[in-house]
Amino acid sequence: MSVRRRRREAPMPQSAAGLLRFFEEEIKGIKIRAELVLILAALMVAIVIIANIFF
């Protein structure tokens, strides 16, 4: 890690002791990109609006 990068990234106080490093661990399970979730949510909204108009 370069000296410049270390100066910009200040460690969180709790992570210095290794207490809150859970966000760096790999989680097993289904991984879905955020873009896909937003697209699916927008499609669901559009389907509900169209269903309310025609039915």
Structure in a nutshell:
The protein has helices spanning 3-8, 34-54.
Describe this structure in words.
With 55 residues, this protein is mostly helical. The chain has one domain (3-54). The chain is 49% helix and 0% strand. The longest helix has 21 residues, at 34-54. The radius of gyration is 21 Å and the shape is elongated. The termini are far apart. The mean pLDDT is 76.
Helix and strand arrangement:
Blueprint (H helix, E strand, L loop, with lengths): L2 H6 L25 H21 L1
Radius of gyration of CA atoms, rounded to a whole number: 21 Å
**Count of runs of 4 or more consecutive helical residues:** 2
- Low-confidence stretches are none
Can you give the mean pLDDT?
76
Major sheet: none
Total strand segments: 0
Number of domains: 1
Strand share of the residues?
under 5%
